[in-house]
Design brief:
CATH superfamily: Thiamin diphosphate (ThDP)-binding fold, Pyr/PP domains
Helix content: 25-40%
Structural class: alpha/beta
Oligomer: single chain
Distance between the termini: 23 Å
CATH class: Alpha Beta
Order of helices and strands: HHHEHHEHEHHEHEH
Largest sheet: 5 strands, parallel
Strand content: 5-15%
Number of domains: 1
Number of helices: 10
CATH architecture: 3-Layer(aba) Sandwich
Bound molecules: thiamine diphosphate
CATH topology: Rossmann fold
Radius of gyration: 17 Å
Length: 269
Amino acid sequence: MKIDYAEKAKELRRSIITMLHDANGSFSGGALSCTDIITVLFNSFMRVNPQNPNDPQRDMFILSKGHCSSAMYAALVSVGLIPKNELKKYGKNGTRMFIHPKRGTYPGVEVSTGSLGHGLPLGTGSALAAKILGCDARVYVLMGDGECNEGSVWENAAFASFQKLNNLIVIVDRNGLQGCGRDSQILNYGDMGAKFRAFGFHTIDIDGHSYAEIENAFQQATTLHQDRPTAIIAHTVKGKGVSFMEDRLEWHYKSPDDEQFSAAMEELS
Ligand SMILES: Cc1ncc(C[n+]2csc(CCOP(=O)(O)OP(=O)(O)O)c2C)c(N)n1
């Protein structure tokens, strides 16, 4: 049966907005820009088993842009790795549902992230370890485009392609905005795909809100059996799905108030 990605993504966005509203101080725009990518990835490609979450053969998802954890937690709920009522604890004192995720707090939270530029090094090491152990696991690393300003990203891009890590799939959420402005004004990487190609990656540019293009990109990345890692450059809109948040810098770090919460939920109903 064909998966209704649009409906599943809406459900994820409703969970995200609820978490962000209740936490009263979190990252909205970047969680919504990557929701469609995460929806397709978790529904159709991630090989995880809630009955055996630590299976050494499992795929790993690393949310390198850790500030967008609300999207990851909602996805982990959708595949049965976290009970839904845990989401009520998001960002609350005294709980382990941290805004910047911590390894080991929940199944599927594979590494601690939040300090940008560390997810790809950790993913590269994990993908190399899987190769050495002869295990078929894949490692997916989701990064922000602002995050790509970190030097560690490119050091690891070089290493990953040198090691021919075809089990490593990087997704760049290319929403064009970062914490303090537009990428184009802060450090313009221009054609991000060309940069990853220069480092030896297979690259695919997609509309990060087209379910068909997202599905096709993951399909390519997982079936081409080439001798190199893949970078999917997903062109997205920060705040996607809630009209008054779309492509607005102020929503990088801001939670909806009661009125904005109701308006957003109505749009997503
Ligand atoms: C090493 C490091 N420097 C600075 C920050 C503060 N910070 C949090 S989010 C962010 C902007 C990230 O932009 P981008 O990667 O484009 O994420 P997105 O737009 O997808 O939210 C910054 C600078 C951080 N978390 N880590």
